[in-house]
Amino acid sequence: MKILDTKFVQGFIKMADDGYRQGWHERNGGNLSYRLRTEEAESIKPRMNFRDEWFPIGTSVPGLAGEFFLVTGSGKYFRNIIVDPEVCIAIIELDEAGENYRICWGLVEGGRPTSELASHLMNHEVKKDVTGGAHRVIYHAHTTNIIALTYILPLDDRTFTRELWEMATECPVVFPDGVGVVEWMVPGGRDIAVETSRLMKKYNAVIWAHHGMFCSGEDFDTTFGLMHTIEKSAEILLKVLAVSPVKRQTITAQNFRDLAVGFGLTLPEEFLYEK
Ligand code: 13P
Ligand code: ZN
Fold first, then answer.
1. Are strands 205-208 and 180-182 parallel, antiparallel or unpaired?
2. Is the CB of 114 under 6 A from ligand 1?
3. What would the pLDDT profile of 41-87 be if each residue is shown by its tens digit?
């Protein structure tokens, strides 16, 4: 089967285009990665074009040694992925130490994987471990309303989680563990990757102050849906704050506890503080 026709490549392209249409990917903003299943990698091996040169990842991910990833290219526009995927995306293989990668397909006009490769792979390594291998997608988007909120709210997990939960009843159902927040850091390196992956042990979504968000999930739908839900919640919060700095009523801590019973959720008490 042609690599481009596989279900996972098609799902990846659709998700990238969905994100572009949401307005989260100006220019080359954002990046996406997918950890291939063993059988997916095996089925396309005859059609891969293994390049000889190995490049350093910039960090060490021994938990992902030998695995294959579909990733967006650095500097590539999400807008163009659906138009010419083989130019914009690539499949990479990691070496047996989990320290180097090589390109096996895609980026046919040249280029490298996303500059956030260290963050993607360190997040994948953590999520593979804590979910028993279930999570396969890491998504970074420049979500407008979440970015705006990072200029207004205190940059801590407690405040962001609670404020976002309050903006729609379904929010704690979609992200019951809450969201993590990383203060402003230089993107594209190991330090921000270490900090983000530390928070990914606890959360499926991590906000980068004044930059955007990272989400993790089992498949393209749940990961996109998580990004979409959190970003919509941020949009509602901004609308509320724009009209009135004080909420006349809201979903209370007790309402959340009742919701948890009704939906069989575990909502951490650290987010159910009295205001
Ligand atoms: P890349 O084009 O290298 O993926 O970078 C985009 C981005 O969003 C950096 O944070
Ligand atoms: Zn970014």
1. parallel
2. yes
3. 999 999 999 989 999 999 999 999 999 999 999 999 999 999 999 99
Number of the ligand closest to the Cα of 32: 1
CB distance 27 to ligand 1 below 6 Å: no
Give the separation between CA 219 and CA 222, rounded to whole angstroms. 6
**How far is CA 274 from each of CA 159, 181, 251, rounded to the nearest angstrom?**
12, 21, 12
Residues identified as active-site: 116
80 close to ligand 1 (CB < 6 Angstrom): no
Whole-model pTM above 0.85?
yes
196 lines ligand 1 (CB under 6 A): no
32 Cα: distance to centroid of ligand 2 (angstroms):
11
Distance from the alpha carbon of residue 113 to the mean position of ligand 1, in angstroms? 9
Atom of ligand 1 nearest to the CA of 76: 2
CA dihedral 77, 83, 87, 90 (to 10 degrees): 80
